[in-house]
Structures are given as structure tokens and as C-alpha cells.
């Protein structure tokens, strides 16, 4: 007898989309640091602390499907998104540089990479965390109804 729930196709697709987003973002983060040799700052590391485990946790929730994974993944995505939002506000100057946790090494306030002149790494991170939070929130609502 299986102890795992049988998911609807759309529930599984939502979880798969979340996993695909965080896995792509994790690999992108590693590409920036290991291939492009852009050293991560303190806030980038903090975002990695929440992004990398999500790839493993969501994969574990997919195979076999475990609807309880939302309880663990949703807080990680939300907290990671808050850190990315703080980092983005720091980079665009809304938060003063004196509030940055980076005292040595790479500055958290400096944008090392900008695509199209305005898309920075914290912005990409914030978009992924926001999308995953939204998807997991939707999955949670579907499970509770």
C-alpha cells in the first residue's frame, strides 16, 4: 500500500514548474560564479542558502509526489524572496549602502552584471522566488480546498 497521495496532473505540473525554476536559477547562479567568475556577495550567498535546497526539496516532493512538500518549500521561497528584495533595494539605492551586510570583499550594493541595462542578478533571483512562492501558494490553496 502506497503512503503517497495521487496528484492531479495540474498539481504535479505546478510542483514541476517550481522545481524547474529553482533548478534553472541554481544552475545559473553556479554559471555566474564558476564560469563567468563573478564572485558572489554576502547577500547572494544568503539567497543561495534558500535557493539550492529548494531544488532538492521540490525534486523529493515530485518523486514520488508528496503534497506535504509545500509546508517546507513555501517558507524557504518566501524568505529567499525577501532577501532578494532587500538586495535589489540596496542595489538601486533605496536602502543606503551603510545598511549592507558586506563589509569586506564583494560589495552587495554594486551590480556586477546587468542584462539589458537594468536586469541584475538580485532581480532575477527575486523574480524566481516570487514565481515559486506564487506557484506553491496556489498549490497550497488547491490542497486545502
* Major sheet strand order: 1-2
Number of helices: 4
What's the total number of strands? Answer: 2
**SSE succession:** HHHEEH
Q: Could you tell me the mean pLDDT?
A: 90
Give the structural class: mainly alpha
Q: What fraction strand?
A: under 5%
Question: How would you classify the quaternary structure?
Answer: single chain
**Judging from the principal axes of the Cα atoms, what is the shape?**
elongated
Fraction of residues in H or I helices: 55-70%
User: What is the rounded distance between the termini?
Assistant: 25 Å
Q: Any idea what the radius of gyration is?
A: 17 Å
Give the biggest beta sheet: 2 strands, antiparallel
Give unreliable regions as ranges.
none
Written overview of the protein:
There is one protein chain. By secondary structure, the protein is mainly α. The protein has helices at residues 9-35, 42-62, 69-91, 121-144, and strands spanning 114-115, 119-120. Strands 1-2 form a two-stranded antiparallel sheet. Helix 1 packs antiparallel against helix 4 and helix 2 (42-62) runs antiparallel to helix 3. The chain is elongated. It starts with 8 loop residues before the first helix and ends with a helix. The mean pLDDT is 90.
Amino acid at each position: 500500500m502506497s503512503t503517497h497521495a495521487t496528484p492531479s496532473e495540474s498539481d504535479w505540473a505546478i510542483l514541476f514548474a517550481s522545481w524547474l525554476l529553482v533548478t534553472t536559477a541554481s544552475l545559473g547562479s553556479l554559471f555566474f560564479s564558476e564560469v563567468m567568475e563573478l564572485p558572489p556577495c554576502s547577500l547572494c550567498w544568503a539567497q543561495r542558502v534558500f535557493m539550492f535546497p529548494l531544488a532538492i526539496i521540490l525534486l523529493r516532493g515530485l518523486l514520488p509526489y508528496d503534497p506535504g512538500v509545500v509546508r517546507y518549500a513555501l517558507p524557504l521561497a518566501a524568505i529567499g524572496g525577501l532577501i532578494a528584495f532587500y538586495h535589489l533595494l540596496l542595489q538601486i539605492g533605496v536602502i543606503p549602502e551603510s545598511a549592507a551586510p558586506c563589509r569586506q570583499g564583494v560589495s552587495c550594493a554594486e551590480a556586477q552584471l546587468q542584462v539589458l541595462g537594468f536586469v541584475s542578478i538580485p532581480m532575477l533571483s527575486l523574480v524566481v522566488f516570487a514565481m515559486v512562492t506564487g506557484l506553491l501558494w496556489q498549490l497550497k490553496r488547491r490542497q486545502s480546498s
